[in-house]
Amino acid sequence: MKLASMKQGRDGRLVVVSSDLAWCADAAHIAPTLQAALDDWDRLAPLLENLSTDLDHGVIPRERFHEHDAAAPLPRAYQWADGSAYVNHVALVRQARGADMPDTFWHDPLMYQGGSDGFLGPRDPIPLADEAWGCDLEAEIVVVTGDVPPGASRDEALAAIRLVGLTNDVSLRNLIPGELAKGFGFFQSKPASAFSPVFVTPDTLGDWWRDGKLHRVLMVDLNGQPFGRAQAGEDMTFDFGTLVAHAAKTRALGAGTIIGSGTVSNRDADGGPGKPIAAGGVGYSCLAEVRTVETITGGTATTPFLKQGDTVRIWAEDDRHHPIFGVIEQVVGG
Amino acid sequence: MKLASMKQGRDGRLVVVSSDLAWCADAAHIAPTLQAALDDWDRLAPLLENLSTDLDHGVIPRERFHEHDAAAPLPRAYQWADGSAYVNHVALVRQARGADMPDTFWHDPLMYQGGSDGFLGPRDPIPLADEAWGCDLEAEIVVVTGDVPPGASRDEALAAIRLVGLTNDVSLRNLIPGELAKGFGFFQSKPASAFSPVFVTPDTLGDWWRDGKLHRVLMVDLNGQPFGRAQAGEDMTFDFGTLVAHAAKTRALGAGTIIGSGTVSNRDADGGPGKPIAAGGVGYSCLAEVRTVETITGGTATTPFLKQGDTVRIWAEDDRHHPIFGVIEQVVGG
């Protein structure tokens, strides 16, 4: 089952979307919003599944699904927490600035509490008041949970995952050092994130979803050129079950909690930092990482951060090269 | 106008509460939940004000207002961000551990993104799975905003403040050093916060609300003994207009955003760390601060963190010693 929220009011209008993303059907008679569906998932999910089946069979009224008209599946949420599960990425960033990485980083997930009061739709421009802030994309996998009890095990956490999707976790890199130095984590450096047009249930992903990971390539284009083709199922040190359980260690998680993987990142085949796609590598899922690799290999970062008018495209494909979650495509500044 | 949410479902049932907190009237015909009221505040607030006036005049059906039956006014919210506006508190904590405090801390607010997917009601027990986590109370002032545009000025931010209340921002002190060392801020160390039974509009507070500060004593009792009597209007380095503008620097804030003051803290009359109430001082609004003062003055902290069965009471009074926002009263572990 694939679910989306068409732009309407603060919370959107819930629709089920056909497998090929061509059609959708209004789900308001089941739940007006995706949050409402998540709040009563056990009762409503089977009804939404039936609607989805009917839509795929073409036996109910349907409308074309236009990704441009979609909001984030949860246009606002009660929780967004982002992990840093691809520890390779963290190790590279620290190597570039000459900082040791504690061994605990391989065993204890990094996670920050993000702002969730308003998200960007998949085709919304990225607002950027000041290029000097160092705007970056971060292509990531996300999951949406149901209610998770405090102290949940990894298996309980995995069982609570309701939906899977993609995000562009926009970051203002030049504001990060000052904020981290203050010790309270990210705040101004993390403006609104964008999400893929549809979120998908794990069972619909079949074998692509296993061991708490999405086993597909995360495609990232920058200004029309291939930029990232990392395999999201590889080098993910902490699977989503572990990330959700980490988040729930001392408190319950409310239904509709979104948990992110952090920037997807693969080691190069030789075990070193990833190479650009033009050099035969899988590229990168954020600009900070290519700048880090440039710093390590050449002494200085040459790739600039995002400028007004730059375009970012993030998606994942099925075996026939059709987007699974739709496409995030954003222009900086709009 | 005073607003509360009676426990019902995930978001409570909105009521207006009489000035003396004795009575309430259902507001569901105006807005089913406080979030719904905040989402359409300009249109709905005058209707709620009329209901409030009618309630105070006793001309509409009313029911007794039982604080025990109240949820947090926003039982879950789209954003909870907590400042550290009483810089005196930060300076003391750093002094105790021998860390310098950067001068910027006096000019640039500290703020962290908190979890907002589920809050405790004012009389709910504080869940605590492990006393070794070092459970602490933090008595604070909070405001709830309407929509705030990105880059809002302090004056715009002040004008966007819809409601004022109190919180007990529960903290797990022994988990904080490890989390801050990882650099991503608080997460597991900040379980669910509790809020006062009612939130109050700034105009209803009259002269107690001025310059973006609440000019009342924040009362804190611990196990039935006076523990804190700090004046919330004093030593607040950053007023709420400044805190809200800080939060909105790079992004919009959605209606229903809750912004906290951080632990209220007063310097002693001689300019040094505050003294206990028994020693003629105004006491403390969290255990970490008394432990810090003990460390500075005696070399070691002697006051323990909260234990199962401890009770915490937080409130503020009008001139006749009646609670303005109702009373937060929680038992650890329940």
Extract low-pLDDT stretches of chain A.
none
Distance between the termini of chain A: 32 Å
Q: Give me the strand/helix succession of chain A.
A: EEEHHEEEHEEEHEEHEEHEEEEHEHEE
**Count of DSSP H/I helices of chain A:** 8
What's the story with the biggest beta sheet of chain A? 6 strands, antiparallel
Share in β-strands of chain A: 15-25%
Describe how the helices and strands are arranged.
The structure is a homodimer of 334-residue chains.
Chain A (H helix, E strand, L loop, with lengths): L1 E5 L6 E5 L5 E4 L7 H6 L1 H17 L5 E2 L5 E2 L8 E4 L3 H10 L14 E4 L20 E2 L2 E7 L8 H6 L1 E8 L2 E2 L3 H7 L11 E2 L3 E2 L1 H4 L3 E2 L2 E2 L2 E6 L2 E7 L8 H8 L10 E3 L26 H12 L12 E5 L12 E4 L3
Parallel strand pairs in A: 6-18
Antiparallel strand pairs in A: 1-2, 1-5, 1-13, 2-3, 3-4, 6-7, 8-11, 9-10, 9-18, 10-12, 14-15, 16-17, 16-19, 19-20
Helix pairs in contact in A: 3-8
In short, what is this structure?
The structure is a homodimer of 334-residue chains. Chain A is α+β, with helices and mostly antiparallel strands and 334 residues long.
Protein architecture, described:
The structure is a homodimer of 334-residue chains. With 334 residues, chain A is of the alpha+beta class. Chain A is 21% helix and 23% strand. Chain A is built from eight helices and 20 strands. In chain A, the strands form five sheets. In chain A, strands 1, 2, 3, 4, 5 and 13 form a six-stranded antiparallel beta sheet that branches. A six-stranded mixed beta sheet of chain A has the order 7-6-18-9-10-12. A four-stranded antiparallel beta sheet of chain A has the order 17-16-19-20, with no helix packed on it. In chain A, helix 3 crosses helix 8. Chain A is globular, with a radius of gyration of 19 Å. In chain A, 55% of the residues are buried.
